[in-house]
Write a structure and sequence with these properties.
There is one protein chain. The protein contains three helices and 40 strands. With 681 residues, the protein is mainly beta. The chain has a domain of 381 residues: TolB, C-terminal domain (Neuraminidase), CATH 2.120.10.30. The strands form nine sheets. Strands 1, 22, 23, 24, 25 and 27 form a six-stranded antiparallel β-sheet that branches. It has a six-stranded mixed β-sheet with strand order 12-13-14-15-19-20, with no helix packed on it. Strand 17 and strand 18 form a beta hairpin. It is globular, with a radius of gyration of 29 Å. It starts with 9 loop residues before the first helix and ends with a strand.
């Protein structure tokens, strides 16, 4: 990519010079006193906007998936609070409040979400000897608060500086946390650490697993506020702050040794390679000779920014600069056009123009991609979160909205009301494109990028979306006939009030998608992911949901006559007041789901596992429960007329289950369990 010229405001140069002369205790104060709203991104096809303000020293963010959507969690350093942001609105009441020490670099410093588990890192100060303790703790999200703390790891006797605290999850679900040298200026080995650590880990100044704390992934780290994993290679990278020179970006393979305190920046001729118990030293992939206080690192993977798929963003506290680096072909380092940077060092006399992507931020502390694909940037100095996204001007990233023969990029193009009958748009880029009220009969979108596109009130007949990315796409009030979504990604797609006829969603990812009040008769969802999907008040007669993931999906008030749920995973799913007559649940795993007041006449649960299922007030007339194991399920006021129950459980176990059922219907009119067939094999 050809670098673009940029003029660095003089205040940024002065900022960096002043920063070098500040103590660590003064840096935060300086950032607060030198706030700026002059945020600039050098790509004119992108917009940067203020998303949230009014935070008190925000440090990091992450996103949590809840029943009502995906929300942002943000931590405030000195307050020790975790707050939640819903639909762009900051909720003032914290979901977690911790007592923290917050002098200098101390405070609430790290957060990472893993499903409903939330990992946090914070510091406390001893009143006895005025030393700092670092704590990694795991909490559980209950939908309102973070509860049930579990201490994972703690480090004691620190000086208040170099606490680290950033965390990352790898592709195997392992959570890694970084801890600095705790201000001691060296790496403490196992023999030296006894007075400093409460847990038996090999090193401080390291990156280590929080799932298995005995595993130390990397050592020799002075202090880091940035960890990320390359989504292509799966390799970990970090940023590291130097002492008086050489901030670093490192490729962190297992058993990596960053060299502190022997080496900062690239190794020099007169320096010996540091050896620490088999951990191998390697030079940084890039260094700043003059420190800029590097913080977060982020590999861009959002489909909203296809031109940056090989780019890495790095934030800095000093100067409020957002850097962008281009990965080399092997993705094990960076490539540069500027000859002065090809030595992998920004020396004092070198120009940073090629790597500067944004300016004017008041101390960047975190960079994350959101569920909408936008990039969010946390700035501690002014208590804000910024959002970077494509400019919706009908011509994003140099797209040519009329050249269908040669162009592949139609980002942000407006096609509302157009007739595209028979067009081939396979593998083209249509993110943020507007197809509302268009005729798309016989159109081929196979493998296309349609993230955040709009098909509102469009006509889609015989359309092929197989393998396409349609995350966050709008189909509201559209008409879809013979449409193929096989193996497509439709995360958070909106199909509310749509009419679907003979539509195929086999093997598609529809997590958090919405089908409320839609017509879906005979739609095929086999092997699809419908976790947290919404089907409230929809017509799903004859729908095929075999082998689907329906965890936390909502079918309240839906019509599901003759629906096929065979071998589906129905965990914590809502099917209250639903019409499920003649539906099939053969060999289905049903766990903590609700069928209250539902019509289940002639439903077939043969060979299914029912655990903690609520059938209160449900009509199970003539239901087939042969070879079913209704463990701890609720049958209060349930109609079981002509129901069939057969089990091969041990007699005593069966007796307890049967007694539970009979107790639940005790006192009811006999007609409710008339002709109830119960047999033991």
């Amino acid at each position: 990519m050809k670098p673009m010229r940029v003029v660095i405001p003089i205040f940024l140069i002065l900022f960096s010079i002043i920063l070098l002369n500040l103590s660590s205790n003064d840096i935060l104060t300086y950032a607060q006193e030198n706030k700026t709203n002059n945020v600039v991104i050098k790509d004119s096809n992108l917009i940067v906007e203020e998303y949230i303000s009014g935070l008190n020293l925000p440090v990091m963010i992450d996103f949590i998936d809840d029943d009502d959507g995906v929300h942002m969690l943000v931590i405030e350093k000195d307050e020790g609070t975790v707050k939640i942001i819903k639909d762009g609105i900051l909720i003032s009441e914290p979901i977690l409040q911790l007592e923290v020490s917050h002098a200098s670099e101390e405070g609430l410093l790290g957060i990472l979400v893993q499903n409903i588990d939330v990992f946090v890192h914070h510091t406390t100060r001893s009143v006895d000897d005025d030393t700092t303790s670092n704590w990694f703790t795991k909490y559980t999200w209950d939908g309102e608060k973070l509860i049930e703390p579990v201490e994972l790891l703690s480090f004691h006797k620190g000086t208040g500086n170099h606490n680290g605290g950033v965390m990352i999850e790898d592709e195997n679900g392992i959570v890694f946390g970084a801890i600095g040298d705790l201000g001691y200026g060296k790496v403490l080995d196992m023999q030296q650490q006894k007075n400093f650590l409460s847990a038996e880990n090999n090193y401080i100044g390291s990156i280590l697993s929080l799932n298995a704390p005995s595993e130390v992934y990397a050592v020799g780290i002075r202090n880091t506020y940035g960890l990320d994993i390359d989504p292509v290679t799966g390799i970990l990278w970090d940023t590291e702050n130097g002492h008086r020179d050489f901030d670093e970006v490192n490729l962190v393979q297992k058993k990596f040794n960053s060299g502190w305190s022997k080496i900062q920046g690239p190794i020099k001729d007169n320096q010996e390679t540091p050896i620490i118990n088999g951990y191998e030293y390697s030079d940084p992939e890039f260094s700043w000779e003059r420190p800029v206080a590097v913080t977060s690192i982020h590999f861009i993977q959002s489909p909203l920014f296809p031109e940056y798929e090989n780019s890495v963003l790095i934030g800095s506290f000093g100067g409020g600069i957002l850097y962008k680096f281009e990965l080399n072909e092997n993705r094990d380092g960076f490539r540069f056009d500027d000859n002065n940077l090809k030595d992998l060092v920004l020396n004092k006399e070198d120009s940073p123009n090629e790597i500067i992507f944004g300016t004017g931020f008041a101390g960047i502390t975190d960079i994350k991609e959101g569920p909408d694909g936008s990039i969010y940037i946390v700035t501690i100095g002014d208590g804000k979160i910024f959002r970077i996204s494509p400019a919706l001007n009908g011509n994003i990233g140099g797209s040519d909205c009329q050249n269908f023969s040669d162009s592949k990029n139609f980002s942000g193009c407006i096609f509302s009301g157009e007739d595209f009958t028979g067009k081939n748009f396979s593998n083209k880029n249509f993110n943020f494109a507007d197809f509302s009220k268009s005729n798309l009969t016989d159109v081929n979108f196979q493998g296309a990028n349609l993230v955040n596109s709009n098909f509102y009130n469009a006509k889609l007949s015989n359309v092929n979306f197989s393998g396409a990315n349609l995350d966050s796409t709008i189909f509201k009030e559209a008409i879809l006939t013979n449409t193929n979504f096989n193996k497509a990604s439709l995360v958070s797609a909106d199909f509310q009030k749509t009419i679907l006829s003979k539509v195929n969603f086999e093997h598609s990812d529809l997590e958090r998608s919405l089908f409320d009040n839609a017509e879906l008769e005979a739609t095929k969802f086999m092997h699809a992911n419908l976790m947290r999907a919404g089907f409230e008040s929809s017509n799903l007669t004859f729908v095929d949901l075999e082998n689907t993931n329906l965890v936390k999906a909502n079918f309240d008030n839906a019509i599901l006559k003759n629906a096929n749920f065979n071998e589906a995973k129905i965990w914590k799913t809502k099917l209250n007041n639903a019409d499920l007559e003649n539906s099939s649940f053969v060999e289905t795993d049903v766990f903590k789901s609700e069928f209250r007041k539902s019509n289940l006449k002639n439903a077939d649960f043969q060979l299914s596992k029912l655990t903690n299922v609520d059938f209160t007030d449900a009509d199970l007339t003539s239901v087939n429960l042969l070879y079913v194991y209704p463990v701890d399920s609720i049958f209060d006021d349930t109609i079981l007329k002509n129901a069939k129950i057969n089990t091969c459980l041990e007699h005593d176990i069966f007796s307890r289950i049967l007694n539970k059922i009979l107790r639940s219907i005790e006192g009811l009119n006999s007609e409710f369990f008339e002709k109830l067939i119960i047999s033991v094999c």
